[in-house]
Model the fold of this input.
Amino acid sequence: MTLASNDDGELLALRELSAVLGADPLRTQGAGGNTSIKRDGVLWIKASGTWLAEALARDIMTPVRLDPLREAIARRDPRAAAAVDFVDPDLNASGLRPSIETSVHAVIPSPVVVHIHCVNTIALAVRRDGEALVRERLGRQADVVTAFVPYRKPGLPLAIAVSERSTVDTNVFVLANHGLVVAGATVAEVADRIARVCNAFSAPARPAPQPDIQALSSIIEGSEYRLPPESAAHAVALDPKSLAIASRGSLYPDHVVFLGPGLATGTIVGGRLRAPDGPRPFPMLALPGVGIVLHRSATKNADAMARCLADVAARIPEDAPTIVLTAAEERELMNWEAETYRQSIAR
Ligand SMILES: [Zn+2]
Done:
C-alpha cells in the first residue's frame, strides 16, 4: 500500500498545498520545507531531498511510525534524528528516507504540519528583536498561538527546542534563523493560517538596480562560473545595503548547506572574473555592484538559495540588529551525513 493508493481528500489537499508552496520562491526554495499528516499512527512526511513543488507530480511522502519515533525523541535516542529506523517498510513504496526535520513534525500534536522557509518570516527571524516583532505582527490574529523557537540544528535538536517551547495549542512556530512551522486540524485550516501569518510578516523588498547581463557574461567568459537562472538573484550584490547584510554571515541553515558559509566575493581584474582562493570552488560569488555568479558544479538547490538570499536580504532594514550563525553552527551543517544524502537526492 502506498500513500497514493490510500488517497483521500485530506491527503490530496496536502499534496496540492505542498505543490503550491513549493512553486512560490517566497514561501520555500528547492528541497527546503516539508509537509506532513498524521493518520492511523503513521506520520506521512515529505521525503528528504525531494521538492515540495513535485508533490503532485510524484510520490514524495514517506511513512514513519509515530509512537516509536516519539519514544525515541523522548529518550534522546540519536536514531530519532534521521528517523530511518522508524519508517514503515510495508507502506514505503518510494523507498525514500524521511525528511531531516521529521522529528520536528512528530513532536507537534496537530494532524497537519507544514514547515516552510518563507522569506518574510526569515527576514524577521534573523533579527535580535524578532520575537517582539513577530508577536506585534500576529497580535490581532485570535486563533494564532505562537512560539518563538531559538536557533537549533535542524532535526533532533530543533525538535527538542520546539517541544520545550510549545503547548498542545501552539499552531505557529517561528524558528529563529530558519523559518516557519504552521500546524492545524485540517489542510484547509493550515493553508488559511499560513496565508494570514505570511501576510502579517510581509515586507516590501528594497529595490535594487538591474544587472547588466551582457557585462556579466563577458566577465565570466572562460571561467568556471555561470549566470544564475533567475536575474532576481543578482539583487544581493547590486544593492549595497543587502550586500552589507549578507556579508555579516550565514543567516539560515540551507544557505550553508547549498552555498557554503557566509558570502564569498569575487573581483574583476582586467575585465575578467578572479575567484578567491579556497580548497574547493565557492558555489556562489558576489561581485559587488555587478551581480552574482554560480560555479558550474552548483546544483539547482544552489540556484534556489542564491535567489533566496537576495529575497531575504532585501527585506531586512540596513539598521536592523541581525544574528548570524556561529562558526560552530556552520560546521555542524557541513559534513553532516543526513545532509549529504539530501544533496545527493536533490539533483
Ligand atoms: Zn527547514
